[in-house]
Structure prediction request, 317 residues.
Amino acid sequence: MQYRKLGNSDLNVSEIALGSWLTYGGGVEKTRAIDCVRAAFDAGINFIDTANIYGRGAAETLLGEALEGVPRSSYILATKAFFPMTETDKGLSRAQIRKQLDNSLVRLKTSYVDLYQCHRYDEQTPLEETMEALTEAVKSGKVRYIGFSEWPVDKIQEAAEIPNVMKFISSQPQYSMLWRSPEEKVIPYCAKHGISQIVWSPLAQGVLTGKYKPGSAPPADSRAANSEMNYFMKGNMMSDPVLRAVQGLLPVAKDAGLTLSQLALAWVLHEPNVASAIIGASRPEQVKENALASGHKLSADVLSRIEGVLQPVLRAA
Prediction:
């Protein structure tokens, strides 16, 4: 496992991170989820990402149990807040950040998180209030660093220009061979300002594993076949043209000595501004396979072949 510096911080995170969205505390049975966490540590993964909204606290609770007894200094823990936990508990006001952070710490059974992230931008709360509350959280010792997920560039810049507040060190966008929108504005801005990307869905919700075949029903044990985990898997991402193109990547991966999943992860890690790619695993063997993507440098020829295969369907995806 290789490690990269996370933005302007002293955190060195594993190139592959273990996520818990739609899986732990929800779609994946408890014992198997804990086995995945253990497999991650065995593979050298030191970065665990979660959020209060995942299972409305269930993912954090499971991770709190799975991480109990593991030396706290041996892993980097990230969580998030923004989405509604109840009808009234939502957003990034000062009161909500204090409340949701404390609740997350209780569920995670820890006194601090290494990274606290704004899960989305809060249009209902003044940005200054949010940034001041995050700064207070850092000064309290409950948070080491702060980040955001899926913020527009103008709001990232506004936050950076507020005086006397903590600065963001990380951005968490959706990014994959099939979803490249961060390349237009977010990555260039962040690269100039000491903010690293922690990318979610680098395997495009499993599409880039090659398990979904054009014209065929999804495998019974896959995310696409699970009503609790497949609500982001709609539209063009599962269309036959996209699935055919993904199958066309199989010989590229083989020639590179990688599985298709490893090729997809190595592709996002080819971007220097990406510090870590978050994987969601339902089985320990998936963790082990994906962790082996770390450290692989894709040649110019491989990158060119990937573009040749995917370019016709990128707009559709």
User: Anything to note?
Assistant: The longest helix spans residues 94-108. The mean pLDDT is 92. The CA atoms of residues 39 and 285 lie 8 Å apart.
